[in-house]
Amino acid sequence: MYILEEHTKELKEISETTFSEHGLKERYDLQEWIDKNPEILAKELGDEEELLIIQKEFSGFDKTNERLDLLALDKNGNLVIIENKLDDSGKDVTWQALKYVSYCSALTKDEIISIYQEYLKNKNLEDDAENNILEHLGVDYININISNSQRIILVSREFRPEVTSTVLWLRSKGVDIQCIKFIPYKFQDKIIIDIDKIIPVPEIEEFTVKLSIKDTDEKKTSTVKKHSEKIYTEYWSQLLRNSSNYNFNLYSNRTTSNASWISAGSGISHVMYNLVLLKNEMRVELYINRKSSSENKKIFNFLYEQKNIIEDKFGKPLIWERLEHRRASRISYSTNQFNRDDFDNWDNAIEWHIKEMKKFEAAVKDSLDQVKNKIKIRNELSN
Fold first, then answer.
1. Second label for 223, Cα 20 to 30 Å away, from 13, 109, 168, 334?
2. For the purposes of burial, counting CB atoms within 10 Å of the CB of 256, is it exposed (0-12), middle (13-18) or buried (19 or more)?
3. CB contact at 8 A, 52 and 73
4. Which of 192, 210, 228 marks a domain boundary?
């Protein structure tokens, strides 16, 4: 790795080092970095990835005292086992991780919620685990750790050939496993860490464990999911058909959705106007979810500075959620006066959605245009 000395037009080499050479530890440093900043892994996994850490040093397995480093949920509700090794992967890390996957594959939805609630309690956070998981998944029902969907992430400065060979073989068999390197470099009095995914990840294939209780739970959840998807498809289809009656064109280019929300662009990439339909709540919202967490917070902060102006235009107070521990931020207005399954009242619910979104879009549009101009100027300067 090199650093550019701009005034001399020279490249100076930065020396690779080791974590142990600087007194850094696997448990107290590497593990804590990932726990506090899971987005550093998400960037290597892909733009759409976002991990929710739900436990660390987890040892709640039957008849064994073994403990895994970090346990997370991805956006699809899959459990992610993260196993960390500091400078050297060792030769047994794949076997170790596979054991943890076998243990975790039997965890039920309620057990996972309980595990996460304990994690939040240990961090002195008063958040509700179930609500956080729903928010993370972007749904109004929890459908997690289904069948053999577990994933493995191995983290180390260096991976031994026997480890990468085993990982590649597991990958060829459909196991969702990947290796990510954390490589430290010494530069003056600082440690610079380069993070690099060295092995791509395929889908995980079936891996059988005793799951009789969990299988029953999955079948029930699957039925609920299909029912909900049918309801959402019908509701959004009806809303899109009715939009012209209200001179509402924001979603005119959209087809229906089987999710609990439907999105329309704001003119800024990954900043979306969402209509949200939950079982006992409806929302209109601006969802700020660009690739960079820091940029999302800057956009939110800019809009929050104009809170009084925006709310005066809207005519009512809004809900401002910076979402400190997540990549995205959100501004919304909601109601609990409608029930998703009250089909006879859908016309009134749709009218509420459309009228409130028209007012909401008009209230934030001028402020968003200012954000758009700032982004445009920044991009022009960078080019």
1. 334
2. middle
3. yes
4. 210
Which range marks the domain in which residue 262 is found? 214-382
pLDDT of residue 210: 38
Q: How far apart are CA 296 and CA 290, in angstroms?
A: 6
Say if CB 150 and CB 105 are below 8 A apart: yes
Cα–Cα distance list, 90 to 21, 213, 331 (Å): 18, 36, 47
Q: How far is CA 4 from CA 8, 11, 14, in A?
A: 9, 5, 10
Closest CA to 77 of 150, 20, 18: 150
Q: What is the pTM of this model?
A: 0.58
- C-alpha Rg value of the chain to the nearest Å: 24
Same domain, 169 and 219: no
- Report whether pLDDT(28) > 60: yes
Instruction: Note the pLDDT tens digit of each residue in 164-206.
Output: 989 988 888 888 899 999 999 988 888 989 888 888 633 333 3
Tokens of 382: 């960078």
- Please tell me the distance from the alpha carbon of residue 205 to that of residue 28, in angstroms, as a whole number: 33
CA distance 381 to 379: 5
Residues 275 and 354 in one domain: yes
The residue written with tokens 């436990």 in the block is 55
Structure confidence at residue 149 (pLDDT): 84
Q: What are residue 190's DSSP bridge partners?
A: 187
* Same domain for 142 and 75: yes
Give the number of other CB atoms < 10 A from CB of residue 199.
Answer: 17
Q: Are residues 154 and 44 in the same domain?
A: yes
Q: Do 281 and 203 fall into the same domain?
A: no
Say whether both 114 and 250 belong to one domain: no
Judge if 187 and 305 occupy the same domain.
no
Q: What is the dihedral of CA 35, 39, 41, 43, to 10 degrees?
A: -170
In this predicted structure, what is the pLDDT of residue 218? 65
The alpha carbon of residue 240 and the mean position of all alpha carbons in its chain are separated, in whole angstroms, by 28
263-296 residues labelled b (16+ CB within 10 A) or e (exposed): bbebebebbbbbbbbbeebbbbbbbbbbeebeeb
Q: 200 exposed, middle or buried (CB, 10 Å; 0-12, 13-18, 19+)? A: exposed
Domains in the chain, number: 2
